[in-house]
Amino acid sequence: MTKNSINTESLIAPVFFLAVAAIVFWQTNTDLVEKDIASGSMQYNAAFVPEVLATVLVILAVSQIVQIIRNSGTNPVSIDAQDDASAEAPTERGLAVRSVVALVLIALYILALRPLGYHIATPMLLASLFALLNVRNPLLLLGLSIGLSLVSAYVFGGLLNVVLPAGVFEIAPF
Amino acid sequence: MFEPLFQGLQLFFTMDAVFAVLAGTLLGLLIGVLPGLGPLMGIILLLPVTFHMEPVAGMGLLIAIYVGGSCGGAISAILVRIPGTPLAAATLLDGYPMAQKGRAKEAVGIAISASALGGVLGGIVLIFLAPLLARFALEFAPPETFALALTGLLVIALVSNEATSKGIMTGAFGLLISTIGYDQFANDLRFTFGVNGLLGGIHIVAMVVGLFAISEVIVQIKSGFFSRNPDVPWVRPSLSSALLVLSRWVNLVRSSAIGSFLGALPGAGGVVSSFTAYAIARSTSKTPEKFGTGIEDGIIATESANNATVGGSLIPTLSLGIPGDATSAVLMGALIILGFFPGPNLFEQHQDVVGGIFLAYMSANVVLFFAGILLTPLFVACIKFKKQYLLPFITLLCVLGVFSLESSTFHLWVMLAFGAIGYVLRRYDYPLAPMVIGMVLGPIAESNFRRSLVISGNDYSFFIDRPIAATILAINLVIIVWMLCPKVWKNRLLLRA
User: Fold this and answer.
1) Would you give the distance in Å from CA B216 to the centre of its chain?
2) pLDDT interval class at B129 (50, 70, 90)
3) Which residues of chain A lie closer than 8 angstroms to B400, CB-CB?
4) How many domains, chain B?
5) Which of B15, B54, B421, B428 is most worth mutating to test chain A (most A CB atoms within 10 A of its CB)?
6) What is the SS3 assignment for B1?
7) Which of B93, B306, B462, B480 is 20 to 30 A from residue B447's alpha carbon, by CA?
């Protein structure tokens, strides 16, 4: 049994490019106009090159969207196949969730880096990532997290003179 | 011609530079061996570290990673049939069957020797051709530089292989990103949205780390198999493999020449050159039927071409400032951040730096031979490295590297955002390389275009009145026509050729 459907997920990328182009046009018609740098001869017109590029993006993104919609009409999706896919979904979905969690962990780390400091935030990030990737031995998990963050701190802070955030507890061994 | 080499001696023969080349080659081999990573990833991960080093040491580290990484993938391709990098895919054709016949030791030895010797031959081409090309390019004024940058941008489409329109989209996106920040001609800010972190534009390192490394971490997590541990045979190749490779010198020289030539052409790269060299070696062989069954000539052709490509790719990057692929674009970005603009002026004003880079490249190939042969057991052991330990370490390197640029968490947000964007684009087969090329060449193309108009008083005929600029623009026109040409016509033309 088959049905025709639009793969909405594959529209994400062209829609993203359309959004980028929209931002460019919005800025060139507001902010750059207010600054009086979006007119005049091309060499002094700061909006010219971005608008050309945004136009290219719009044309190609629209053609991509049209192509995706057209293909959805000619490439029928098997409903049986969808059923098969959903049978395998938990594993795939689980991995997809883990990849999103990894991104969220990095985001939380960036937020925590200044207030908590490198020496608290980094072992926490590493421990969470190791746990996310099925490292179950608690000693190994803690040892690797603390060891790796200390070695990296020594290389970057001690050898390369990067000032790592000390945080509210002001921990700065190197 | 050899002036840069003599001048570079002093800069290269320092503890820092020599150590950087040694460490870079070993790291490159290690990264190349690990499936899923490659020289580009290695360069990106170590890129922030180089900004704390002397220019020649920093570039030496990155180029050595490029050299080592281009070879490392062959070890895993031969032993476990998983090319560590796409560059080693062609080596698998004869390398793995040879290992299956119980000759893994010879296969790995030949691969490393051919890589090192091919790399040296590619280096000789680089040392001879790059200064000549740079001397020619000295005549270039803004119109010529703009036309040449435009060629680099059109390469975007060539790099994208099948996905031309997707490549142009990511390229245009990269170009747009390069317009963020201060506009020197309008003397004001563009697209900064009042965010202080955007005043200087998006930092290329934060962007490439996110785009390639963070997105790779996500891809690897999504593919599962966190604790897979491949069964790898123990091998210890001997230094005498080099003699065997040298005895097939015709194949070695021919394949290295192919690698250097295709490396210098924008968009071709190591994968194309290794498969081309393999095909030519087979077609010129007296026993073509033996190719694919595990013969030495197959490995020699692919690996020598593969590493000679590195030298070839540095020719347009250093002498013209036109990178042909993502790796060269990142190397060019690194050189710019270190304070040296690739192009003819680099050869005029900083011959010592150019010479230092040449020496670093040649030395990396020498180190590759000895370290590769002697430390193979170590790299073989690394193939067993589990993803569950590797991915958090890569994430840590990304985070620390990007933070170390300017001790700024803003760059970390940029990295994360581009990680997500990179993942989405990869998922739907949008090539990422054009984005980097666009980001690197964007400011060069735009500033030289606008500068040309300033010089000519807004007269566009300035671009076609100058013979060199007109010729380059005509070539660009041919590339555009070729891009617009339907695929069926292209195939017909290629078949006739």
Assistant:
1) 17
2) very high
3) 152, 156, 162
4) 1
5) B428
6) coil
7) B480
Under the banding of pLDDT at 50, 70 and 90, the label for residue B157 is low
Measured between beta carbons, the chain B residues lying within 8 angstroms of A49 are 175, 179, 446, 449
Q: Which residues pair with A77 in a beta bridge?
A: A3
CA geometry: angle at B417 spanning A66 and B324, to 5°?
Answer: 70
A101 Cα to chain B: minimum distance (Å): 10
End-to-end CA distance of chain A: 66
Identity of the residue numbered A151: V
> How high is the ipTM of this complex?
0.88
Alpha-carbon gap: B224 to the closest alpha carbon of chain A (Å): 7
Rounded CA Rg of chain A:
25
Phi-psi region of B272 (alpha: psi -120 to 50; beta: other; left: phi over 0): alpha
Please give the Cα distance from A100 to B222 (Å, whole number).
9
Average pLDDT over residues B330-355: 90
Residues in chain A closer than 8 A to B214 (CB atoms)? 106
C-alpha to C-alpha distance for A127 and B42, rounded to whole angstroms? 24
Residue A3's φ and ψ, nearest 5 degrees, are: -145, 155
Residue B86 above 80 pLDDT?
A: no
Question: Can you tell me whether residue B98 is helix, strand or coil?
Answer: helix
Q: What share of chain A is helix, strand, coil (3-state, %, to 5)?
A: 75, 0, 20
Whether the pLDDT of residue A156 is over 90: the answer is: no
- HSE-CB for A118 with a 13 A CA cutoff: 26
pLDDT score, position A75: 52
Greater pLDDT, B4 or A34: A34
Nearest to A42 among B409, B412, B458 (CB): B458
Distance (Å) from the C-alpha of residue B116 to the closest C-alpha of chain A?
30
Closest-CA distance, A24 to chain B, in angstroms, reads: 8
Of A50, A60, A156, the CB nearest to B400: A156
Whether residue B270 contacts residue B73, with contact meaning beta carbons closer than 8 Å, is answered with no
Please give the residue range of the domain that contains residue B73. 3-496
pLDDT (0 to 100) of residue B495: 67
Chains A and B form CB pairs within 8 A to the count of 162
CA distance B432 to B483: 19
B49 and chain A: CB distance < 8 Å anywhere?
Answer: yes
**What pLDDT shows up at residue B267?**
64
B426 touches chain A (CB under 8 A): no
Minimal CA separation from A144 to chain B, in Å: 9
Specify whether the backbone of A4 is left (phi greater than 0), alpha (psi in -120 to 50) or beta: beta
Residues B145-172 have a mean pLDDT of 79
